[in-house]
């Protein structure tokens, strides 16, 4: 388990990247160009604290850089398929390239943060009695990381961060690699050792009732992301490998300059 600080930088690439296309309509060839708004992003994560069980001496010290990710967010303005109007492209220096697509939506007020499981799929989900889940038992119900984080239900920490916060409007970006044209491509070592096979992430962009120094609503960003890593044979009688959820969550506040 890693507690971390994060900086997520965004910059506008283009408000209308043209994807050229044509179609035949009533025997005539017509232009069906698609236009895409592109945002460049760079994610940098620095460790605050880490804990593991059993102790491995590999968790690292505070201040350790533990993740770097450049990528793009795309808003597809037209010519969309199945309502898929947002996409995220990411590259990770472990040797992974990601394309996830999904949908954007807006709601009044605060979001409902779903409960997700941090437990692996393919083993008996009994934290107290299954020795394979001993690392979870070591931290389940513990006071690690402000007494709020539980590796079995990690999104609880996001809900706790919203208590007492007046959120007036939320934009939701929900993307998944498990779509027909999406997926993750990995270098051979990753495929052999702990293959990253799918990713889903949800971003909640929140406008607050509280105003900033310029008189505009303060903005926050919460996200929950699960990457499934497949390794070791399942023990529940189902063919295949155990799917380990690598879960990342955070609550960030927008700053300018």
What would you note in describing this structure?
With 257 residues, the protein is mainly β. The chain has one domain. Helix content is 7%, strand content 53%. It has three helices and twelve strands, in the order βββββββααββαβββ. Strands 1, 4, 5, 6, 7, 8, 9, 10, 11 and 12 form a ten-stranded antiparallel beta sheet that branches. Strands 2-3 form a two-stranded antiparallel sheet. The chain starts with a strand and ends with a strand. The model has no long low-confidence stretch (mean pLDDT 94).
Q: TL;DR?
A:
This protein is mainly β. Helices cover 7% and strands 53% of the residues.
Beta strands, count: 12
Q: Could you state the oligomeric state of the chains shown?
A: single chain
Content-based structural category: mainly beta
Low-confidence stretches: none
Give the radius of gyration: 21 Å
Overall helicity? under 10%
Spatial shape: globular
Distance between the termini: 32 Å
Mean pLDDT: 94
Q: How many domain regions?
A: 1
Portion of residues in beta strands equals: over 45%
What is the tally of helical segments? 3
**Element order: H for helix, E for strand:** EEEEEEEHHEEHEEE
Largest sheet: 10 strands, antiparallel
Give me the secondary-structure topology.
Elements lengths: L1 E18 L2 E4 L2 E4 L2 E17 L14 E12 L9 E7 L3 E13 L25 H6 L16 H6 L5 E10 L6 E4 L1 H7 E17 L5 E17 L7 E13 L4
Antiparallel strand pairs: 1-4, 2-3, 4-5, 5-6, 6-7, 7-8, 7-9, 8-10, 10-11, 11-12
Features:
about 260 residues; mainly beta; 10-stranded antiparallel beta sheet; two-stranded antiparallel sheet; 3 helices; 12 strands; about 5% helix; about 55% strand
